[in-house]
Amino acid sequence: MSASGQPRMLIYSQDGLGLGHLRRTTLLAGEFLAARPHASVLTISDSPLGQFFSSRVGHDYLKLPSIRKVGPGDWRPVSLSMGFSDVLRLRREIIRSSALSFDPDVLLVDHMPHGAMGELVPTLEALEGTRTKVVLGLRDILDAPATVRQRWHLEGAFEAVERHFDEVLVYGSRDVFDVSAEYHWPAAVRARLRYCGYVCSPTTTKTSVAKLRKRYLRSDPGADLVVAMAGGGADGEALFSTLLSAVPGMERQRRCVVVIVTGPFLPRAEQRDLVRRAKGLPVHVVAAVQDSMTYLKAADFVVAMAGYNTTAEILSLGKPALLVPRSGPSAEQQMRARLFADRGWVGCLSPDSLSPRSLADAVLAGLDAGELRRTAAPDLDGRHAAARQLLTGLRDAPGYPPPDVALLPVPGTPSSGAELETEQLLSGG
Fold this sequence. Notes:
This protein is of the alpha/beta class and about 425 residues long. It has two domains: about 10-200 and about 380-390, 3-Layer(aba) Sandwich (Rossmann fold), CATH 3.40.50; about 210-375, Glycogen Phosphorylase B (Rossmann fold). About 35% of the residues lie in helices and about 15% in strands. It is built from 15 helices and 16 strands. The strands form three sheets. The chain has a seven-stranded parallel sheet, with helices on both faces. Helix 1 packs across helix 15.
């Protein structure tokens, strides 16, 4: 326990080219601080966007030099001209010294049990025998099971979990994807798994949905609003380009206005091309929004890739949606889209079948059908359940005030943002 008597949580999040991991850890930090308003949370991350998402008082960020993965076990610096070994050495020391100085009650490691290229191992070893509870947080689907099993054994990830981690939080549902069975978790660590449900943003929004719909439907109030998203957008060009080509065919059968949120990582040249092609069409291109829930809430239909966060937000709102997962290099999105579509939670279009005609047909069919029939409701309580697990062992410690918010029980265990006026609008249809 810190000298102040208030808990401290340290989060390690490697997210060099995307927003997914940073978004989840920010949500969990916020939930932790909602329960302990005087606690402190420090996130160590290498996102090039730094503190992209707004967070509660008590949460701060430490930026590592950014790196990106270009292939299995192959990493490169994003900005620094130094060799990767020098950047890795620098990152390793920053993480270790910060952890020892911060002296956390809880260390939440996001996604990679030993860190990028093992950079977290010195920190984990330094915290052995201390009071720090070490927790691994995983989205349920990482990649094709055979790929994960091979990489985790090769890189020593299973050994790291067994040696250093007290608990593993799975941000998903066991009945959708059984992590221990699919990835062949060793018996010694299976008992540490806790399924929390899907982590998604609160459904409250900072911007008026009516105001947003009025902005985009001003010239045609009776039209349907279709919103397209691809998370950070680094690989969203194929979906957005195909959607632009599909709009004329959609217009011939149904009045609609399309808003494309490219994400901050879509290359500028591709953004400019989308803007150019959108002229004369009922299409608006938006670079980035922090309050994505408002856009999803305002939509009559959503077209998205199958990243974890966007998908979880779609499910939390019960919006009719079509997922078009990326084709690779990971199988994660295709697996998620297929599993969710099988349960009637979303529609799914394979990237191999993506064309202007197939996309237009799928969107029009989705608009006609409205909300899909669900075979069972998804478990969306991940924020609360994960926060409860992170607080376990701290709740009754002397000097801790009672939580300000109720944290719900963990189900199924086996043992943002800117106001509308500040959004980056690139073009109007």
